[in-house]
Amino acid sequence: MAKKTFKTAADWRAWLGRNHDREKEIWLVYYKKDSGKTSVTYSEALDEALCWGWIDSTVNRLDDERYMQRWTPRKPASVWSAANKARIKKLTAEGRMAAPGLAKVAAAKRNGSWDTLNDIDRIGRTSEIPEDLRAALAQNPVAKDKFERLAPSQKKLWAWWILSAKRPETRARRIAETVKGVAAGRRPGM
Predict the structure, then answer these.
(1) φ, ψ for residue 95 (rounded to 5)?
(2) Could you tell me if residue 188 is inside a domain?
C-alpha cells in the first residue's frame, strides 16, 4: 500500500500525470487543518483525480494530525454522482480535463454508467420516487408516512438498492422488502 502526501494540487496532478495508467491505487495522506502543516485538500485532490479518471473511496485515520484516503482508477461500470458530474462540467469548461479523464467520461456515457444515479439523485432532491415503489407504499400507510419523513440520504439508499436490481423479479422483491423495512423503522441494508 503506497502512502503519499502532496503539498499542493499541482504536485498531486503531476503524480497522476505520470502514474494514472501504471498504478492501481494510492493512499493520499492529508494533514488536518489544525495541524499547521500543508497538504493538498480533499476538494483539490478530487478535482485533479477526476481530470485523470481516478476516484476516491475509503478514508482512514492515521493519527491526531493526519488521515488518508484511497484513490484508484475508475472502473468501467463505476457510477457518477451528480456532484462529480458537475465538477467534470466545471473542469472541462476550465480546460483542466486530461485525455484519460475525458476517455473515462466518454466510456461512461457510452455504457450507461454516467446516467445510473440520475434517478437516485433526483429522489434525494425531490419527492419523486419510482412509480412501482410509490404504488407499493400506497398499500401500506405506515410505510408511506415513514418513507416521506426519511432524510433524503436514506431515501437515496433505499432507491439505489431498488434501482440497482438487474432483473424485474429482483426489483419487485426489493420493493416489497423496502416497504416492510421502512414500516419497521429499519435503515437500508439492515
Answers:
(1) 75, 25
(2) no
Q: What is the CA radius of gyration of the chain?
A: 20
Q: Which helix (H) or strand (E) holds 29?
A: strand 26-31
Length reported for the chain: 190
If pLDDT is split at 50, 70 and 90, which confidence band does 125 have?
A: low
**Is residue 126 scored above 60 in pLDDT?**
no
pTM: 0.73
User: Bridge partners of 4?
Assistant: 28
- List Cβ neighbours of 142 (8 Å cut-off, separation of 6 or more): 183
Q: How many CB atoms lie within 10 A of CB 168?
A: 9
Whether residues 43 and 26 fall in one domain? yes
What number of other Cβ atoms are within 10 A of residue 83's Cβ? 10
Answer whether 5's CB lies under 8 Å from 31's CB: yes
